[in-house]
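Q&A log
Question type: sequence-to-structure
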Amino acid sequence: MTPLVECQGVAFAYLPREPGAGAFAIRDLSFDVRAGETFGVIGPNASGKTTLVRLLSKVLEPSGGRIRLEGRDVTRLSRAALARLVAVVPQDVPRGFPHTVEELVLMGRFPRAPRRFFESNEDRAAARRAMEAVGVLELHGVLLDRLSGGERQRVMLARALAQEPRLLVLDEPTAHLDLRYQAECAGLLRRLGRETRLTIVLVSHDLGFASELCDRLLLMAGGAAVRLGPPEAVMDEAVLESAYGCRVIVDKHPVSRRPTVHLIYPTS
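Response status: OK
Response body:
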């Protein structure tokens, strides 16, 4: 079976900020994501996680190697065609956006008919299904600025689902959420993966969150893949200490038995 996502020897480098300075680069990155899989990307700051999101969504194009979606080269897809395959939920939820929940979710339908100026009945039905799926249908007429952080995150997820993509990419979905909303986000993503078989790429700094949700993890550091495999194989103390430059203890969650990571704080 052809993977939904194939990255083969992908390379990308930013221009240096000043002459003679070094520049961040992704080097020879290869992995695949299977249909229906929840695939996690973890790593320290400046490891290449956000750059990878931009490459998968064609905000950036690789300087070497190849990215394929459903067997098609991403560079040969129009932006509208790509948006019918890939939806991205960004880390930062916009503020000062003078629209209601339903209006924002309907914006996710644009790739389905980029030359149409008005929503169809099909668009409204898709938006309603997306709002129901994430539990924000009752907020459809509420302005975005009146929502809590967790509610706004759900609305952004609904907009992505309204695109009806094959691949959902989430960039740090719990970055600004408190513990309650983190738990709700985890439950929601589990349910979406189970009920819709949607393929998910989850980028996260939260190692415990990624370990609990993901079928496989890709650990990146310095623009390169360090380890790829199930959480039990990637959450290795020596590997994590080398990638993050600090001491950790890897244990198992008392309920799920998934790996959990504890930071060892310096004593002086």
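Response note: The chain has a mean pLDDT of 89.
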